[in-house]
Amino acid sequence: MNASLRGGTGAEVDRTRLLEVRDIVKRYQGVAAVDRATLNVAEGSITALIGPNGAGKTSLFNIVSGFARADSGSVRYRGRSISRLPPHRVARAGSVRTFQQPRVLRRLTVLDNLLLAGPRQPAESFWRALAPGAGRRDQELRRRALELLALVRLDDRAEAYAGVLSGGQRKLLEFAKALMAEPLLVLLDEPLAGVNPTLRELLLQRLREVQAGGGITFLVIEHDLGSVLRVSDEVAVMSEGRVIFQGSPEATRRDPAVIDAYLGSAEAIVASGTPG
Questions:
Q1: How far apart are CA 128 and CA 70, in angstroms?
Q2: pTM score, two decimals?
């Protein structure tokens, strides 16, 4: 674990802002996918990032998680710049992400997928495997993996190949894999897309439970507006590469810029299934 990113004194780290994104610009072939985007993610919160297709949400996720490098601007995590770190170092610092299409190892069991996602896994290094206490760490890792599979109701599929899971179950496995890494911040990219209503409600319930009890912060891209407004503490809205609004779900429903750029009409907010 990178102590320079995870550690630090109280004077160095603003704990009310776990993630700070400032004036990010990213162009592809001259077209601005992200255009001076700025947002904050408060520690311990669920922050939703919404907007129409092509607004720049996933491009911004790629920059925050190290999979793309911004042309300008800054990303600060726990008060330290991560703007130029590769994905594995961002993850090692405690910020992990999921993808729109779950990245599961289809020919490994569901349990093995989780074990490989765990921190300090004994098989990671030959010398570490020989170190004192390696067997105990292996047992602890397996216990945590089974607990997470029970959390997302996949414990009865632990020994099944991941390739036989449904699309919704793979989303649940992807969520559990992110938690297996013991992160401080989890970026979820459309976790509800293609998930049936039953599994959708389960994922939302578990998201809230983990956030409330585990001290984990979430930044979530999602097009299911009703779910977003129901579970989020704050909502950031992107349009044409910019963050045009950030505030409470209640304020989101009333903001004229949000209605104009994303929702189209005030009636759309009511139709989202959330109380006005």
A1: 36
A2: 0.83
Q: Please give the CATH number for the structural domain made up of 15-95+183-270.
A: 3.40.50.300
Q: In the block, which residue shows the tokens 């603003």?
A: 14
Quick: pLDDT tens for 216-245: 999 999 988 888 888 999 999 999 999 999
Give the other-Cβ count within 10 Å of 125's Cβ.
12
* Domain boundaries along the sequence of the chain: 15-95+183-270, 103-121+134-182
pLDDT one-digit tens code per residue, 82-98: 999 999 999 999 999 99
Q: How many CA atoms lie within 13 A of 28 on its CB side?
A: 9
Burial category of 70 from C-beta neighbours within 10 Å (exposed 0-12, middle 13-18, buried 19 and up) = buried
Long-range contacts of 139-143 (CB under 8 A, 24+ apart): 141/115, 142/111, 142/115
CA distances 226 to 61, 260, 275, Å, are 22, 18, 9
